[in-house]
Amino acid sequence: MKIAIMGGSLRKDSLNLRLLGHLARTLAALGPKVRIAAGNDLRIPLYDADAPPPPGAVSLHNLLADSQGLVIVSPEYNAGIPAHLKNALDWVSTMRPSPFQGLPVLLASASPGAFGGARAQMQWRATLANLGAVALPAGITVPLADRNLDADGVPQDPRTAAEVQKVLAAFLDLTGRLGARP
Ligand code: FNR
After folding, report:
1. Domain at 78, CATH number
2. What number does the ligand 1 atom closest to the CA of 75 have?
């Protein structure tokens, strides 16, 4: 079982990147092979229908096409999806074969705010549905993340820590059921 995990912001101290690291380590300990697309992997030129897909988009397409599940760890900007992550997905959505059709996706987000990125996840759900992906109904939200995540991205609040374990287990269950891809 191969799981791709993508996200974080482009800044080096990204809370979402920290969370991504924790989720990647936790998932890998449960068995799947986990591969990460973050930071410079997601510095992809803006989508341009007149240009061929840039190398970053080709790499991301290859990664997703060879994965049975995807975790998106997304910051929330202005109650929505940050541009660099939407741009990356937009590029891959134009490439064939589509890696999104039937792909199980787990949404996770961290924010210093009280909503933990839940509004960005609502936008993600609309985009993923359009792509034919299967988003797990439950997502992981980490509110007050500047206080709640330690340096390794481990939630300090027991409620959040328990939610992470429960939702990751549900995601692996979904991936096991739907993830039989060549
Ligand atoms: C934000 N932030 C933010 N947070 C939130 O919970 N809801 C929001 O709508 C917004 N809007 C927003 C817009 C823009 C342009 C920026 C730069 C930031 C705050 C954001 O959650 C915070 O900066 C996080 O720390 C960003 O994620 P990383 O970089 O820590 O992963």
Report:
1. 3.40.50.360
2. 27
Number of structural domains found in the chain: 1
Domain containing residue 54: 2-178
User: What's the CA-to-centroid distance between 15 and ligand 1, angstroms?
Assistant: 10
Atom of ligand 1 nearest to the CA of 115: 6
Contact yes or no for 3/32 (Cβ under 8 A): yes
Residue among 102, 108, 116 at smallest CA distance from 168: 108
Q: What is the pLDDT of residues 58-109, one digit of tens each?
A: 999 999 999 999 999 999 999 999 999 999 999 999 999 999 999 999 999 9
Ligand 1 pocket test, candidate residues 17, 22, 78, most atoms within 8 A of CB: 78
**H or E element: which one contains 7?**
strand 2-7
Query: Other C-beta atoms within 10 Å of 76: how many?
Result: 24
